Amino acid sequence: MKHPSTRELFLYWDSQRGSRPLPDRNEIEPGAIRSALGDVFILGMDEKAGHPFRLAGTRVCALFGREMRGESFLNLWPSAQTDRNGVRNLLSIAAAESLGFVAAATGGASGGDKLQLELVVLPLRHRGRTDARLIGVLAPLKQPDWSSFGRIDWLELGSYRFLSVPARDAQASLRAQAAVFRLRHGFPVFDGQAANRPLERDRLPQLNHE
Fold it and tell me: Are strands 129-140 and 199-201 parallel, antiparallel or unpaired?
């Protein structure tokens, strides 16, 4: 993780979960991640609605030039056969396996400008469910000149990896490997991965959601 906000959120999320697979939504205190808060968002797990934003920080909204609450997260990734399906599957895996991921992303403006971003997504327990909420950060790796850049109109997925998990979560890491293969038929089999090491794959040209 390269951006300070992604590191801050992950460390806080990890400390709040303790020995559990993931923390509860009510355990996330905004004041504890004050410096990262503008880059933080929370998504609902309503796939039909495109995983809408339940909350979006001020800097996330500034990236797109509008209030993002209620908007579809998936609709920000217009390439349906690659990026959108890839992001949909990553969100499904994160929720189903209680496992976060970090990804590179490119934000594009209608004028042709592009912005390199970092995305981290982490699952939360909500009202007894482990697949109801996701918290994350979307932040530029380098601050653009907003006077000339304008706003982001679309996102493109880059390389990504599931985050390292402690030994207590080794089985979850193994399940995530299987889940990736199930959700994206045609994904290569992961060989030689230690159970407690991060899984990393570059974005593939064909992502089929089943």
Answer: unpaired
Residues forming a β-bridge with 72: 52
**Which of the 8 DSSP states describes residue 38?**
G
Please indicate whether residue 116 or residue 1 has the higher confidence score (pLDDT): 116
Q: Do β-strands 53-56 and 40-44 pair in parallel, antiparallel, or remain unpaired?
A: antiparallel
pTM of the predicted model, to two decimals?
0.77
For residue 72, pLDDT over 80 is answered with yes
Q: Which domains, ranges and CATH numbers included, belong to the chain?
A: 4-198 (3.30.450.20)
Nearest CA-CA partner of 6 in 41, 31, 52, 30: 41
Q: Please tell me the predicted confidence (pLDDT) of residue 184.
A: 45
Cα-trace Rg, the chain = 16
Q: How far apart are CA 200 and CA 190, in angstroms?
A: 9
Calculate ∠ Cα 170-158-193, nearest 5°: 25
Does the pLDDT of residue 91 top 90, yes or no?
Answer: yes
Tell me how far apart the alpha carbons of residues 101 and 126 are, in angstroms, rounded to a whole number: 19
Round to whole Å and give the CA distance between 198 and 34.
27
- The neighbouring-strand residues paired with 155 are 107
